[in-house]
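Lab meeting, item 3. Inverse folding demo.
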């Protein structure tokens, strides 16, 4: 099972199909393939990465426009999170099934590392309060050079 998840893919798909049906939408094999790729992957993927993986894993061609439509729907339904990263032309995506975390991005190779720090979270809450904000959500991105890229300098 994917790191940090407490639900199997089959359980997840049952819930997803129920949600799609409750919205009056028809399920599609393309949606299922996109979700399967995201469910099985520990990396953050672009739409192009997803289309390529669907072709490689499921042996079907899926148009990039179809992938973007699926991702837009899944993001609207809060099933996935799209993350905009400085220096990347398009968003990268991850399932919205794990607890809150922030990201560190290597500006050399593009590696993305997820992290959680309770003290950082507390400081962010305090900063929001000190500035008269009631924090609803946030997405912290730290940019730097990963250990592997530092070793190649």
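The presenter then showed the designed sequence:
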């Amino acid at each position: 099972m994917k790191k940090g998840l407490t639900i199997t893919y089959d359980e997840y798909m049952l819930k997803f199909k129920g949600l799609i049906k409750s919205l009056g939408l028809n399920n599609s094999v393309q949606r299922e393939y996109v979700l399967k790729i995201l469910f099985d992957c520990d990396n953050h993927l672009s739409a192009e990465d997803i289309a390529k993986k669907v072709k490689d894993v499921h042996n079907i061609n899926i148009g990039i426009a179809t992938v973007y439509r699926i991702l837009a729907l899944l993001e609207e339904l809060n099933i996935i999170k799209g993350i905009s990263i400085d220096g990347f032309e398009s968003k990268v995506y991850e399932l919205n099934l794990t607890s809150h975390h922030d990201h560190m991005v290597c500006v050399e190779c593009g590696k993305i590392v997820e992290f959680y720090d309770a003290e950082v979270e507390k400081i962010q809450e305090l900063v929001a309060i000190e500035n008269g904000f009631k924090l609803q959500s946030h997405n912290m991105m730290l940019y730097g050079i990963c250990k592997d890229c530092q070793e190649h300098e």
